[in-house]
Amino acid sequence: MKRIVSAAAALCLMAGMTACGSPARTSAAAQTTAPAPDDEPKEETTAGSHILVAYFSLANEQYEVGVIEKGNTQIVAELIAEATGADTFKIESTEEYPTTYDGLLEVSRQEENDPPQIAGTVENMDGYDTIFLGYPIWWGDLPTIVKVFLQSYDFTGKTIVPFCTHAGSGLSGTPGTIEDICPDASMGEGLAIRGSTAQNDRDSAAQSVESWLADGGYIN
Length: 220
Ligand SMILES: Cc1cc2nc3c(=O)[nH]c(=O)nc-3n(C[C@H](O)[C@H](O)[C@H](O)COP(=O)(O)O)c2cc1C
Hints:
Structural class: alpha/beta
Shape: globular
Oligomer: single chain
Number of domains: 1
CATH architecture: 3-Layer(aba) Sandwich
Radius of gyration: 17 Å
Bound molecules: flavin mononucleotide
CATH superfamily: Flavodoxin domain
Helix content: 25-40%
């Protein structure tokens, strides 16, 4: 992987990762005991919108926030969509992710050598000129599934505006990684919000989102 930051190593130590097992992954179709990731549609569209908020985000057990019903990045994605009137697309794998933090640490590593497949596609990507791309920082980098998403479409001439949630790393150089994957796209200024702030202090997160959107000229 491009970068493994010390914050990620610290996270593993804090999580007691040395004792991790090997969580088996189950296809969404074959899963019988755990619920599907959620019942929400992957894509929500509004007639005439030229802005898309595409994001990857997981609920269940997450660092610093415990077991959550809605992922930290999804909360920020929804704030952006609400403020801009953008369409949304939730990036999801065809396979279930583990519901424990330790399990996620292990599967995220496995995915680097065995990339996941994305369930569903963005209809009419050609119709969007601005794509807000949201993700959690994983190991100081983009989650592999977000790289797969970027490799799945032609972003030539579009503007990609990155935003992330994290546990201390900030954007951690991910805009540069996006540029490497999509050299023909323009990059907007990124936003990093701590996951625990998105989850537990939504007013503060909303303020950060609104001033960032205003600074970028996406809202008045
Ligand atoms: C596999 C994994 C690796 C992570 N690596 C980092 C990291 O390197 N730096 C960091 O600040 N946070 C790291 N985190 C914490 C997440 O970025 C943070 O909890 C995020 O808000 C989760 O967002 P989500 O609920 O939208 O998935 C990691 C979390 C996981 C599950």
